[in-house]
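hiii, so i know i said id send this last week but things got crazy w the move. better late than never?? heres the sequnce for the chain we talked about at the cafe, plus the structure i predicted for it. fair warning i was half asleep when i ran it
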Amino acid sequence: MKLLVTGGAGYVGSVTAARLAESGHEVVVLDDLSTGHEDAVAEGVRLIAENIDDVIEDVLAEGYDGVLHFAAKSLVGESQENPAKYWHGNVGTSLKLLDAIRAHGTPRLVFSSTAATYGEPDSVPIPETAPTRPTNTYGATKLAIDHAITGYARSYGLAAVSLRYFNVAGAYGAIGERHAVETHLIPLVLQVALGQREQVQIFGDDWPTEDGTCVRDYIHVTDLADAHALALEHAVTGEHRVYNLGNGFGFSVKQVLDACREVTGHPIPAVVAPRRSGDPASLVASSERARTDLGWKPERVDLTGIVRDAWEFTRSRQEA
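okay and structure toks below
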C-alpha cells in the first residue's frame, strides 16, 4: 500500500513509518519538523517537510491507500496554558486532513489518539467503554477528533481506527524518544544517569498503590508501531473502531527508578515532591479488544528490557 504518515518524523510516527517500509509498503512522511527530526525518517521513506495545513490537499491528490495521523501538539501543561494552540493545531488540522481524505477518496485512516481522553478512570484496567472525561485540553482535543472521525466514517464511508495508548517507551534501533521539552518519566530518569540533571522528582509517595507511587502502563514503541499496521489492515469501510493499547499491567514510579538503576548502574537520586493536580493513582489499559479484533499482542513487556532499549538509544545520541 501507499501510505502517508503525518508526524512521521516524531517518536512513534518515525518508528511506525520505518516498520511499515520494512514490510514492503511505500511510505511518505509529512512533517514540518517543528518537533520531529529529519534523521529519524528511515532510509527509503520520502519526507515532505511542510506544514500539513498548507499542503495536505496537494499531497493526498497523489493518491494514497491510507493515512496514519500522528501529527499533534502533545504537552499537557502547555495545552492548559495555551488552549488555542491545541484546538487549532490538533482539531483544526485534523479537520483539514479529514476533508482532504474525503475529497481524494483516501479509504483508510489510523489515528493516534490517547488514554488522556478518559481522564481519571473509575476503575482499572480501563476498557474502551469507560466514560471519556478528559481533564486537560490535550485530551479534550483528541476526543473531539475521535468524534469527528466517527461522523466522517459513518457518513462518508471512511474505514477508520483510533488507537488510545498510555505511556510509550523504549527505542527501535537508532530511532528513539527525544523531545526539546521532556515530560516523560523514563527519559527524565535517564537524563540523571547521563549527568544532565541532578535528580528526579517523585510526585507523591502516598498514593493508594502498593508502594505509594503512581502506577502507569508502559508499552514498547515497537509493539505500538506494529499495532498501527494491524489497525490499518483491519479497518472496516464505514466504521470507526477504537482500541486501547497497553501491556495490561502497570509499573510504579519506584519500579521504573529501580529498573533504570539496574540498567544504567547509576544511583539516580530521587526526591519526593507534592502530588500534581489531576494525576490519577493508576492508569492501566485493557487491550482485550485489540487482541481479539486485531490479533495484537505486545511482545516486549519486560520493564528492564524497555528501559535497556531506551538507555542504549540515549547513550548513542550522547556519543554521536
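btw The radius of gyration is 19 Å. thought thatd interest u
miss u guys!!
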